[in-house]
Design brief:
The chain is built from 4 helices and 7 strands; from the N terminus they run E-H-E-E-E-H-E-H-E-H-E. The protein has 136 residues and is of the alpha+beta class. Helix 2 packs antiparallel against helix 4. The longest helix is centred in the first third of the chain and has 18 residues. It is globular and about 50 Å long.
C-alpha cells in the first residue's frame, strides 16, 4: 500500500536501550493521538476477541545525533509537520503534567531533545529527517 504521509521517529543514538524504547513508545502515542484518521481498525483474534487499533501505516525508527534531532525539529516547525517531542528532563518526571511543564521550561528554539516524531507529506518528512539513519 502506498501512503501520502510518512511517520518517522528519531531517537538520540547515545541513550540507554530502556530510554530509547521509552521515548519511542511515548512519541508513537503522540503521533497516533494527533492523527486519529491514521488509525487502523480494531484487531480481532480467531475467537472474536477485540484488541486495540494500531497506526495503519509503518513508522520509521531512526537513530540521530543531537544535530540531526535539532534539524528535524526545526524543519518540522517550518514545514508545519505533526510532531511529538521528548526532552531529557522528562526522564526525571513521573506524570504527564510534569512532562508538559518540563518541556515548557526548555528554550523554545533549542530544547534538549532526545526524541522527536514527525508525520506529514513524505517529501517533507524525508527532508526533515535527512542525516538520520534507520535505527540498528
Amino acid at each position: 500500500m502506498i501512503f501520502d504521509t510518512k511517520v518517522a521517529i528519531l531517537v538520540l543514538d547515545d541513550l540507554a536501550i530502556w530510554q530509547k524504547l521509552n521515548v519511542t513508545a511515548f512519541l508513537a502515542t503522540g503521533i497516533a493521538a494527533a492523527a486519529p484518521e491514521a488509525m487502523g481498525e480494531p484487531y480481532e483474534d480467531a475467537l472474536g476477541r477485540e484488541h486495540a487499533r494500531l497506526l495503519g501505516q509503518p513508522m520509521m525508527i531512526l537513530a540521530a545525533g543531537t544535530g540531526s534531532l535539532r534539524r528535524a525539529y526545526q524543519q518540522a516547525i517550518e514545514r508545519n509537520l505533526t510532531r511529538a517531542v521528548y526532552v531529557r528532563a522528562m526522564f526525571s518526571t513521573g506524570h504527564d503534567a510534569a512532562n508538559r511543564a518540563a518541556f515548557k521550561a526548555e528554550p523554545a528554539d533549542a530544547p534538549d531533545l532526545v526524541g522527536v516524531a514527525l508525520r506529514g507529506p513524505k517529501k517533507d518528512v524525508d527532508k526533515a529527517t535527512k542525516g538520520a539513519s534507520l535505527h540498528p
